[in-house]
Amino acid sequence: DKKAYYRKNPQTSRYRYINDQFLELNNPQVLTKFLAEGQFPVYLQPKLSFSDRKLAGAEALVRYIDKHQVLVAPSQFIPVLESSHLIYMLDFYVFHSVCNILKRWIDEGQEVIPISVNFSRYTLTQTNFLQNLKNLWKSYDISQNLIQIEITEGSESELSAEIVTILKEVKAEGFSISIDDFGVKYANLSLFTSMDFDVLKIDKSLVEDVAKNTKAQLLIQTIVELCKKLGIQLVAEGVETEEQFQLLDRLSCDLAQGYLFSKPLPLDEFTKRYLAAI
Ligand code: C2E
Ligand code: MG
Ligand code: MG
Ligand code: MG
């Protein structure tokens, strides 16, 4: 009964892979129930600084535990939630969870590191998005710079004028903006002139190329120079080998995220491994 098929996305006119198995998540009542029952655990993947290989941040990555207790990767169910535009419920749930994690660390006297949260562009364009974000945030007493909003630069299309406007408002509220998956298909350079952002994440496909292709090294070197001049932090994603790490270190990237150090971990494992209670 595992049907999968392609569906047209009305906003981009492109067909996307939709897994039929998760179509029940398109019902807001069902999704609300599953979220409340803890079926969407938030995992954390560490980001380490190239200079000392010490923990400098983390990314929140959601998973879904289905009715057979199988841990499902986001690539399987996020397209389903985007097609029904219910993705904002999940994104806000993750945002909420991250606020709780940070609050707990602060209360326990733990070392606190910034955590990034992925937001779908459908979430950003949701009515009252900024107001909802501010309301949620206000109920916590946490500094804004502990949260980064990650938005995919996009292999489908460049960031629209609408998204750019919303991201400017989010940034004006004090949140950091992180551009995800940079360099996947084509690097959209107008990104640098159309808005201010704080972090640029080099996609793992470009990171893979760096050890194989000297032109990829030149490209990254140029991006690094541009980012340094603009005060943008550079995160290399999908760092899997020591060779990649060494090359990216020499190219002066700031932070590394990838299996070389750790896969995304459940919260308690992350805490045990990376944060020492005081
Ligand atoms: P992303 O934001 O680009 O996250 C990085 C992905 O790369 C994660 O996949 C991570 O597990 C994987 N990764 C990290 N290091 C390595 C490595 O060394 N090698 C390889 N092969 N992979 C690595 P994951 O967790 O499956 O998430 C996939 C995508 O799903 C994310 O890509 C993000 O776009 C989306 N996503 C995850 N959580 C959320 C969420 O809460 N909301 C939204 N809207 N999207 C989410
Ligand atoms: Mg991300
Ligand atoms: Mg990415
Ligand atoms: Mg991605």
Automatic annotation (TrEMBL):
Superkingdom, natural source: Bacteria
Signal peptide: none
Domain EAL residue range list: 24-278
Protein name per Swiss-Prot or TrEMBL: Sensor domain-containing phosphodiesterase
Organism name: Hominibacterium faecale
Parent-protein start and end of this portion: 428 to 705 of 705
